[in-house]
Amino acid sequence: MDIEILEFQVPNENNKMLLVWDVEPSHTKAQVYEKLYNIFSCFGPLYLLKVCSNAPQNPPGFYALVKFYSAAQASKAQCHTDGQALFQTSPLKVRLGSRKTPHCHLTVKRRSLSHSHCVELANYFCGFNGWRTKIISLTDEHEAEGGVRFRRLKFGCELELSFPLHRQTINAAAVVEDSFTSTGRNGSCIVKKFIYISIHLLAEQ
């Protein structure tokens, strides 16, 4: 059995992205969105579904971008939908994302998921079994070096994730540190160091 590790980060990998072409103009954009969502969400939770109208130089219709959290689920969805008519008279063309594909805009920098996406992902894979989170402590430390022009900010947070039905609890500690220099009369800042995040997970027995 293949094991896939899912990170709580925005999925930008090509193997998690599907491109759908040849969508007929027999439905409105909203109807196409609803039908595609109902189809692809059956294979797993979706991070993004975007429906766009074809360019003016192309025949009327739509194309869509679908992003999964899981590469395995994206691959399964592609295999089961490519070449199928589904909700229209002609077959759809469904392909995995590629850097050579003009509709695929990828970014190199990885970003963490928003809170709502984290909850959605956790609910799907952990189940709606009463899990909950609680912030135990939150600290805010300020340091000044070399006068008022240089400041160092440090935030610490301790979080508790619990599964009451299974009597399991996990603690997570995170530290965010940011250094910047104040310039200008309005106190605007130029970031001198990228934010460093360190997360350490401890499982309580």
Short description:
This protein has 205 residues and is α+β, with helices and mostly antiparallel strands.
**CATH evolutionary superfamily of the largest domain:** RRM (RNA recognition motif) domain
Mean of the pLDDT scores? 75
Task: Return residue spans where pLDDT drops below 50 for at least 5 consecutive residues.
Answer: 100-107, 184-205
Fraction of helical residues: 10-25%
Shape field: elongated
Distance between the termini: 28 Å
Number of helices: 3
Tell me the fraction of residues in β-strands, as a range: 35-45%
Structural class, by secondary structure, is alpha+beta
Total number of domains: 2
CATH fold description of the largest domain: Alpha-Beta Plaits
Order of helices and strands: EHEEHEHEEEEE
Number of strands: 9
CATH class of the largest domain: Alpha Beta
